[in-house]
């Protein structure tokens, strides 16, 4: 089973940018949907963005136009470019692999990377 490792989190000022990366221990090309999710303190995980093996991308309304998701099947990597960050983007961000796209909870999760947006 593939394992996922996220990196790229940190502290950034409002309006700044960060790039999150998720490296898989195995091939991701067979995985139908990969995505980024985030958890705010004291709440459940929410969807940020997903990308399918066919290249379809979906974004949460709160990040559309600011975040860009991409997957590189040759490098087994999922990336999230985050621009114009806001304090409300502060959360732990998780990478997910959902083999058939039915339910991310049935897939594999990374350990998470903390993003803090603060002046």
Summarize the model shown.
By secondary structure, this protein is an all-beta fold.
Q: Explain this structure to me?
A:
Strand 5 (45-52) and strand 6 form a beta hairpin. The protein contains no helices and eleven strands. It has strands at residues 4-7, 10-12, 18-24, 33-39, 45-52, 57-59, 67-72, 77-82, 91-98, 108-109, 113-117. Strands 2, 4, 5, 6, 9, 10 and 11 form a seven-stranded mixed sheet that branches. Strands 1-3-8-7 form a four-stranded antiparallel sheet, with no helix packed on it. The protein has 119 residues and is mainly beta. 0% of the residues lie in helices and 50% in strands. The mean pLDDT is 96.
What key attributes describe this structure?
119 residues, mainly beta, seven-stranded mixed beta sheet, four-stranded antiparallel beta sheet, 11 strands, 0% helix, globular
Mean pLDDT: 96
List segments where confidence is low: pLDDT < 50 over at least 5 consecutive residues.
Answer: none
Main sheet? 7 strands, mixed
* Strand and helix order: EEEEEEEEEEE
- Count of helical stretches: 0
- End-to-end CA span: 40 Å
């Amino acid at each position: 089973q593939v394992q996922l490792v996220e990196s790229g989190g940190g502290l950034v000022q409002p309006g700044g940018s960060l790039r999150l990366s998720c490296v898989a221990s195995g091939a991701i090309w067979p995985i139908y949907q990969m995505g980024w999710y985030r958890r705010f303190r004291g709440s459940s995980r929410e969807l940020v963005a997903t990308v399918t093996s066919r290249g379809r991308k979906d974004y949460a309304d709160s990040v559309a136009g600011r975040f860009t998701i991409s997957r590189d099947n040759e490098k087994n990597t999922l990336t999230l470019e985050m621009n114009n960050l806001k304090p409300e983007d502060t959360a732990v961000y998780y990478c997910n692999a959902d083999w058939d796209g039915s339910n991310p909870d049935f897939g594999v999760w990374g350990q998470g990377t903390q993003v803090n947006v603060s002046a």
